[in-house]
Amino acid sequence: MKVTIVGAGNVGATCAQRIAEAGIADVCLIDIAEGLAAGKALDLAQAAPLVGHSRQVTGGQDYALAEGSAVVVVTAGLPRKPGMSRDDLLATNGKIVADIASALAKVIPDAIYIMVTNPLDVTTYIAHQVSGVPRERMMGMAGGLDTARFCTFIAQELNCSPADVQAVVLGGHGDSMVPLPRYATVGGVAVTELISPDRLEEIIERTRNGGAEIVSHLKTGGAYYAPAAAVAQMVGAIVRDEKRILPASVLLQGEYGLNDVFVGVPVKLGAGGVEEIIELDLTEEELSALHESAEHVRSTIARWNQIQDP
Hints:
Layout: E1 2-6, H1 10-21, E2 26-30, H2 36-51, E3 57-60, E4 71-74, H3 90-107, E5 112-115, H4 120-131, E6 138-140, H5 143-158, E7 165-166, E8 169-170, E9 178-179, E10 185-186, E11 189-190, H6 197-208, H7 210-218, H8 225-239, E12 244-253, E13 259-270, E14 273-277, H9 284-308
Parallel strand pairs: 1-2, 1-4, 2-3, 4-5, 5-6
Antiparallel strand pairs: 7-10, 8-9, 10-11, 12-13, 13-14
Helix pairs in contact: 1-2, 1-8, 3-4, 5-6
């Protein structure tokens, strides 16, 4: 099984490392920067005898290298800088993603896409429009990362193992995301029984700003270890046909009362990509928050359409 990662920066290279070293698939790195993907791929390949995996890692500039890939992960694009929102990257990254999706559609028309480039829900929409692949083969990595941040902050608050925390975050990958404390548990115990409402609200707000908090520390880029881990989890679920229930940004067509918009919801991931969209029984307040988040995604898509046709 082969996976192509387009973009050999911090996120893409770390995705390649996690996928190869976990033995999930062979990896091909592609980047337009001369020598970047080839150099990082060679470095990763030379680590194989040390960490003990048998996966091939190759790299280069030519999209033809992606041929035969079952899954393609797109991480290429500009990262955020302090003070920037994900939406501030729209014009540049939208064009980058459109060009990539157009090129890949000719080489691997049957691949499953996992989008990582920000603003994520909108770049997933753009890739879907350009490539023409059906919705079950087009998704954005968002909910997994946002949920991991929510779980991390809950675990830190309770001084417990993050492995014991289960949660879900819905909506767009941005400030309007919808963490659901009602569905969060720690070792099977509802988090609402363990953390006060006021403190939970602070944790939710920190989750929404989780990416910006890291950007504020790094100054010159954003997160990559946790995003890469979320990608590897999704890739593993697909290539191993694991039928995992994981959050992802997918095209809704009637689910949750939403149409023609990509937002994060729980899905079943397997060899067919998005094999099922899970509809949670939401309260009025939770559903309203999800719709507000979807409207934010729609407004950013409208900005993209204006950029394309001023």
